[in-house]
């Protein structure tokens, strides 16, 4: 999540993705704290083991028994911290997986929308092209009195054809951009 992915802001489910990203950051902060705590506990264990080794040269003493009890307590703390770290790593992994699922879903929605827009543009293009051809034929075969009316219809339909072609081109570019983003995100 380190790289900037501004294009994700266009997804319809960006709010859910941002919520999951905040959860991931929270988990990562907790993981960092847990790893620091684990490091501190390990250092305490090493210090107590060193102290215990130095004490074992002598006879039995209550001090040595107290040190063993502390060592056991720190060992329990280490096990608990390891469990917390394992749970946090699992939560991070699950959240990242959910983010990927949300991104796929959002990309799928905007892809379907862009494809529908392109398909509608193609239908409109065909319809307007037929109307333009029909108006051109009427213009070419009309009397001078009717020709200005058919000329206007022909020009109007040609403009619609041009607009439809531009709309289709925009939709095609959007589809390509969505495919590119999908490849970037998921290989």
At a glance:
The protein is an all-alpha fold. The chain is 88% helix and 0% strand. The longest helix is centred in the middle third of the chain and has 79 residues, at 62-140.
**Unreliably modeled segments:** none
**In percent terms, what proportion of residues is strand?**
under 5%
Mean pLDDT: 90
Helicity level: over 70%
Class per helix and strand makeup = mainly alpha
The count of helical stretches stands at 3
Number-wise, the strands total 0
Radius of gyration: 35 Å
Ends distance: 16 Å
Biggest β-sheet description: none
- Approximate shape: rod-shaped
Oligomer designation = single chain
Helix and strand element order: HHH
Count structural domains. Answer: 1
Describe this structure in words.
The protein has 187 residues and is mostly helical. Helix 1 packs antiparallel against helix 2 (62-140) and helix 2 runs antiparallel to helix 3. It has helices at residues 14-55, 62-140, 144-186. The chain has one domain (12-186). It contains three helices and no strands. The model has no long low-confidence stretch (mean pLDDT 90). Residues 17-51 form a coiled coil. Keywords: Coiled coil.
Q: How are the elements arranged and paired?
A:
Blueprint: H1 14-55, H2 62-140, H3 144-186
Give keywords.
coiled coil; 187 residues
């Amino acid at each position: 999540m380190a790289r900037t992915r501004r294009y994700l802001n266009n997804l319809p489910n960006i709010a859910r993705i941002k919520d999951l990203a905040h959860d991931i950051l929270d988990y990562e902060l907790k993981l960092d704290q847990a790893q620091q705590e684990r490091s501190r506990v390990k250092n305490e264990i090493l210090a107590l083991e060193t102290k215990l080794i130095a004490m074992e040269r002598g006879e039995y003493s209550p001090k040595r028994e107290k040190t063993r009890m502390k060592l056991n307590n720190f060992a329990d703390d280490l096990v608990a911290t390891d469990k917390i770290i394992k749970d946090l790593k699992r939560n991070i992994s699950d959240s990242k997986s959910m983010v990927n699922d949300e991104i796929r879903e959002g990309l799928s929605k905007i892809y379907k929308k862009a494809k529908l827009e392109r398909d509608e543009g193609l239908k409109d293009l065909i319809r307007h092209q037929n109307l333009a051809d029909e108006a051109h034929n009427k213009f070419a075969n009309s009397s001078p009195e009717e020709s200005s009316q058919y000329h206007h219809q022909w020009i109007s339909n040609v403009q619609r054809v041009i607009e439809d072609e531009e709309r289709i081109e925009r939709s095609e570019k959007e589809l390509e951009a969505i495919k590119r983003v999908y490849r970037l995100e998921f290989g």
